[in-house]
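RECORD TYPE: inverse folding
INPUT: C-alpha cells
STRUCTURE:
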C-alpha cells in the first residue's frame, strides 16, 4: 500500500499543462508539477517521486529528495516559529511542522534538533516530534544479530559512551572503547551490531567483526615484533593488563589470538604468545 511521506517509483498516467499525473495506487492520481518534470518524460514512463501535502494540504509529488521520510529520525534546522509551532527545513518547498505539544523543549530559529517524522492521525499531515523516546519501543521484539550492518543516528552521550538509534527503531549503545572518531549529536552513519545482551539491550560498533579482528591482529603482531617476538600474555592474563598493554578487551584478545593461531602466525603456550 502506498503511503504519504514515502518515496516510490510510479508510472506516469497523464500529461497536462500543469505537469504529469502519476498513478499512486490506493492514493489515486497525484500531480507532479511541471517545474519538477524531466524534459523527456512520457506517458507510461516510470519516475521516482516523494509524496507529501503542499501548502494547501493537497496531495502532491516531487522529484526532490527530502532529508528524511515518515518513519525516520533526522537532525533538522528550525527556520521559523509561529503560533502553530516550529518549522524545520527538510529539503522541500513546504517546511515541516513540529507542533508545540511535540517539542521536548521549546524550539528556536537556527537551532538544529533530532526529530521523528510521522503522519498526524487527526489531520492526516506529515509532522515531526522531538519527543523521540515515545517512538522507540525497546519492549518490541527485534531480529538484530551480532555482526549485522545497520544505520545509526547518534542521539545522546552517557558516561559509558554514545546512545544511538538503530535503523530508526531501537536504542543501542556505542561504548567509548569502541569509538576512535569524533561523533556529533544527530550524526548518521553506518555501524554494526556487536552484541545482543540477554535482556535485549544492544551493544554497537563502528567496525565490522572482521575489521575489528584485523585491527586487533595488527596491534598484537606489531607488539610482538617490538618485544622480540614474545609477549607474556595468554588466556589467563589479567584483563586490565591486556587492556593496558594492547588497548583491547580480554574477550577481543582471546578471539584474535585464536584466529592468529589457526592462521599459523603465532604459537600459544602457558606463559604467553610467540611469533612463528
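DESIGNED SEQUENCE:
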Amino acid at each position: 500500500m502506498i503511503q504519504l511521506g514515502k518515496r516510490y517509483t510510479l508510472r506516469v498516467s497523464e500529461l497536462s499543462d500543469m505537469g504529469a499525473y502519476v498513478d499512486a495506487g490506493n492514493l489515486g492520481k497525484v500531480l507532479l508539477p511541471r517545474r519538477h518534470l524531466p524534459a523527456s518524460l512520457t506517458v507510461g514512463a516510470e519516475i521516482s517521486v516523494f509524496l507529501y501535502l503542499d501548502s494547501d494540504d493537497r496531495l502532491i509529488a516531487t522529484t526532490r529528495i527530502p532529508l528524511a521520510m515518515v518513519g525516520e529520525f533526522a537532525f533538522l534546522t528550525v527556520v521559523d516559529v509561529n503560533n502553530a509551532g516550529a518549522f524545520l527545513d527538510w529539503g522541500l518547498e513546504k517546511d515541516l511542522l513540529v507542533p508545540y505539544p511535540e517539542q521536548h523543549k521549546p524550539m528556536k530559529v537556527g537551532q538544529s534538533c533530532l526529530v521523528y517524522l510521522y503522519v498526524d492521525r487527526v489531520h492526516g499531515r506529515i509532522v515531526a516530534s522531538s519527543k523521540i523516546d515515545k517512538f522507540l519501543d525497546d519492549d518490541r521484539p527485534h531480529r538484530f544479530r551480532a555482526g549485522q550492518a545497520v544505520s545509526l543516528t547518534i542521539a545522546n552521550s552517557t558516561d559509558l559512551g554514545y546512545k544511538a538509534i538503530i535503523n530508526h527503531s531501537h536504542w543501542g549503545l556505542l561504548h567509548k572503547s569502541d569509538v576512535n572518531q569524533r561523533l556529533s549529536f544527530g550524526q548518521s552513519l553506518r555501524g554494526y551490531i556487536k552484541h545482543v545482551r540477554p535482556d535485549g539491550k544492544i551493544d554497537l560498533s563502528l567496525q565490522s567483526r572482521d575489521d575489528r579482528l584485523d585491527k586487533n591482529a595488527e596491534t598484537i603482531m606489531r607488539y610482538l615484533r617490538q618485544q622480540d617476538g614474545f609477549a607474556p600474555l595468554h588466556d589467563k592474563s589479567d584483563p586490565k593488563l591486556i587492556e593496558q598493554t594492547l588497548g583491547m578487551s580480554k574477550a577481543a584478545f582471546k578471539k584474535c589470538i585464536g584466529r592468529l593461531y589457526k592462521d599459523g602466525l603465532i604459537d600459544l603456550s602457558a606463559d604467553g604468545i610467540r611469533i612463528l
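NOTES: The chain has a mean pLDDT of 90.
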